[in-house]
Records
---
Amino acid sequence: MAQPPESSESSAAAPVPVRRNPLATHPVTSLVIAVLITATIACTLIVPIYARITPRVGDFPFFYFYLLAYMPVAAIALFVAATLQNRLKSQGSVPSQGSVSSQGGGQS
């Protein structure tokens, strides 16, 4: 559907919402996300940490115990990172109060 052209008076009265990058707005949250993801990847890539057989925990060699302990920890860390990232997205996409009504945000 074609919309009628806006007059210069109505466009001047409606403030244009300023879009800000959520990463720049919340640098501490962004840093926490980066540290969680980096630590999760680094603990997997640094092989000498867990490539040992000698220290046994129960009947398990250390390698298997490390994997059994690491997988839930990595899953929780990545879940927290994903939750923080979704929270950043939802805070960044919330429009200001006047922008929805001034743009005619509903369907006609």
---
Amino acid sequence: MSLSLSQSAVQGQQQPTGIVTLTTAAPASGVVVTLTSSNPTVAQVPSSVMVVGGQTGASFTINTSTVPSNASSTISASFNGTTRTAGLTVMAPGLEASFAVTSPTKGGDGCLFGPGTDEADCVLDASNSRGFIGLYRWTYWTGSAPIGHSTDQPRSAMQIDTDCGFFENGRGGDDSSGNKYVQMTIELTVEDRVGTRSAPVRRSVRLYPNKHCGFNY
């Protein structure tokens, strides 16, 4: 008897197929092959599969769970004192960073500087990021050196610890209403519990100085 799997590695929730093959055709009454999984929280198999009379093989479906990190299970098939095994790896979902920036005063992709010189009123919202995320790594800059913060929460606020120096070498612009702003870039990378990081994603955001730091607008 042999045991094979349609795939040796799958994403969680996928359903690979197992195939047991006898060396000779089953008798008219059929043959019951016992199945087990060494890690049933990761991969689940039926308790047995029947090879019908006259046939040499039968297939069965393996159900897999969503896992926070890659995990493995050994699938076993036993008949008439013989056991065959096959390894299956269940992979965690890939990491994907995604975010929005919203200000109660300036709307989407806008931030109002203040009231202190180390903060802005916008919310950085990474709730739509995907994967088992343990850390959200934020970076932001105008024309100066990038700064940022890390948090385990999907929603957070900017932490501008360079105060007015954050605007150094920044470039300005006018919005659709004629209001002046400084162009800011915000970048997000998400990280899982074992340190794997996503590709970074960026957004261009309007930062309104709000007459702080020597600005007259």
